[in-house]
Structures are given as C-alpha cells and as structure tokens.
C-alpha cells in the first residue's frame, strides 16, 4: 500500500495578478442582471445615436456656461480642444489596457 503525500491547501487569498473585474465576477453578474439591453441592433444603434447627441448638447451647454461672453466660434474651438484632450486621454488608457491585457492573458 503506497501512501501519497497530502496536498497542501491553497490559500483563499486573491492573487495579485488577477484582474479586478475577475475577482469581483459575482458583483459584475449582479449588475448585468439589472441591465436592459436593446432587443435589436437597430434599437441599440438608435439609442447610441440619441445618447451621443445628448452628450454633445450637454458639453456645448457646459462650455457656454463656463464662457458666457464667448462668441459661437470661440465655444466651438473650446469644444474641439476639450474633445482632443479626451481623445488623447483615451489613447493613453488604451495603451495601458493593452499592456495589462498582455500581462494577464499573454495576448
């Protein structure tokens, strides 16, 4: 009769290299259950277009509120500059996300 060594129990702690969304998968699942998704691609596209138009309107209003004496051309320049800054920030985030994806998943 051969005896095998008992296996060491794994620690129940969270590994440091596991992405945060994977650590909290039960919370993500609970959040998604309460979300209503579009019934069709057309409905989803319409919702996206409406949300985009609303976001641009809010952005325009907030710039006008911050620059009450500005002409329309100045407001438009400020809007374009802000969108350029947001785009640059998104590009930086995307580069970091790609690095993290490669680190966790080896892609």
Task: Output the structural class.
Answer: mainly alpha
Question: How many DSSP H or I helices?
Answer: 4
Q: Approximately how much helix is present in the residues? A: 55-70%
Tell me the overall shape: elongated
Order of helices and strands: HHHH
Low-confidence stretches: none
Largest sheet: none
Computed CA radius of gyration, to the nearest angstrom: 24 Å
Strand content: under 5%
Average pLDDT level: 87
| DSSP summary, beta strand count | 0
Terminal CA distance reads 46 Å
Note the topology.
Blueprint: H1 20-23, H2 25-33, H3 41-66, H4 72-105
Helix pairs in contact: 3-4
Description of the molecule:
The relative contact order is 0.06. Helix 3 packs across helix 4 (72-105). The chain is mainly α and 107 residues long. The protein has helices spanning 20-23, 25-33, 41-66, 72-105. The chain has a domain at 38-105. The model has no long low-confidence stretch (mean pLDDT 87).
Brief overview, please?
With 107 residues, the chain is mostly helical. Helices cover 68% and strands 0% of the residues.
Summarize this structure as a short list of keywords or feature phrases.
107 residues; mainly alpha
């Amino acid at each position: 009769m051969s005896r095998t060594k008992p296996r060491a129990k794994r620690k129940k702690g969270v590994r440091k290299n596991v992405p945060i969304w994977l650590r909290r998968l039960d919370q993500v699942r609970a959040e998604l259950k309460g979300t209503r998704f579009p019934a069709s691609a057309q409905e989803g596209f319409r919702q996206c277009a409406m949300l985009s138009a609303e976001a641009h309107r809010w952005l325009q209003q907030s710039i006008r509120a911050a620059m009450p004496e500005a002409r329309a051309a100045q407001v438009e320049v400020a809007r374009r500059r802000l969108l350029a800054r947001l785009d640059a920030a998104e590009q930086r985030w995307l580069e970091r996300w790609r690095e993290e994806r490669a680190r966790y998943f080896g892609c």
